[in-house]
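To assess whether the prediction recovers the assembly geometry, we first specified each molecular entity separately, as shown.
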Amino acid sequence: MSAVPLRNNKAAASAARAVSVLGATGSIGDSTMDLLRGAPERYQVEALTANSNVAALVKLAREFNARFAAIADPDLLKDLQDALSGTGIECGAGESAIIEAAARPADWVMAAVSGAAGLKPALAAVDRGATVALANKECLVCAGDFFMQRAVSAGARILPADSEHNALFQALGSGNREELVRVIITASGGPFRTWDSADIERATLAQALKHPNWSMGQKITIDSASMMNKGLEVIEASYLFGLTPDEIDVLVHPQSIIHGMVEFSDRSVVAQLGAPDMRIPIAHCLGWPDRIVGPSARLDLARIGQLTFEAPDFNRFPGLKLAYDALHTGQGATTVFNAANEVAVAAFIAGKIRFGAIARLVEATMNAWVRSGNLAPLSSADDAIAVDHNARSKAATLLPQIAAKAS
Ligand code: NAD
Ligand code: MG
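The predicted structure of the complete assembly is given in tokenized form:
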């Protein structure tokens, strides 16, 4: 049984519903709030959360008359309380408050905290059987096996919000699991698609942040430039849909119009297309099992003219290869892959390592973990968090030598 409801039986009527947005002040949060703004009578906002931006959280909480607002930084509780005093909106601060926000009774929860910090809040929503629109891919990469098992046990529905996975979600219903041959997720190729390895090695932060098609948060934009994001998405697809690494292909498609495709045994390939606008997959999750009227631009293929495709280059983008390696090794390895990448990206942003060293740090951390022989499967969220923490410290220890070594 799958927690992703592939067959759409239209059983649930789309009445006005209570919704919560975890990571409301981020890029996905912003797109989600924009959709909610489009039909305020259909949604009651239960909880909104943010990391440290009190002003942005307060603005949204007031606008949407949320019942609860939570800020992750515990030192900001007083600021939040002062700014919301007299509104009747309850406040909380710290990790426990973010988890409480997820646990409060909303029918639909957008899980859009960035990074592994999103795991526990997403699990809190899953455990009470909510419908969870899942943008946070790291929680699947970190703990996908039991995240999906917990969703099945709790009767939660996971609606994939990541554009490629949402495309697969829309296409997979065209056939059965036994009829599936493979899925294909597309990648824009990022800003360095045509660059040679030496230039990629020395790319600056400003260059890495110039995504050709998508406007996203900083971490995922850098991951797109290294194609680590596509690696995370291969892993994400594996856990979400129960696919082996060999059943998941990546195809570089610079226009970002086709987001995902599914090939079936009769050689039919079913694709989902749309402008590169995250409000489209989020609208699909928000409306599911119906479709809402979205605010995004309509697709004009005659104007676009050409859709082109290339095979991914594992040499210039070694992070993608490492993701497949991690997936072959198993759940703990994908947890290490993600943790090391988070450390590496933070080090790159801080100017401590070159762009090319991101993949080298991830590889060195994964190798050290495999050598440690500690490959037991993860059986709880705490197991995953322990592996995540160990991998972060290992990556931090390896950082100086990786930084010192030129490629
Ligand atoms: P972002 O950095 O723009 O926003 C992250 C949100 O999480 C913010 O509201 C921030 O306040 C909150 N947050 C950050 N750290 C936190 C912590 N420790 N505790 C609690 N809250 C915290 O990120 P984003 O681009 O919106 O991405 C969010 C998630 O969605 C990521 O997992 C990303 O991979 C995924 N995703 C994003 C896009 C996109 O287009 N931006 C597309 C697909 C998937
Ligand atoms: Mg994506």
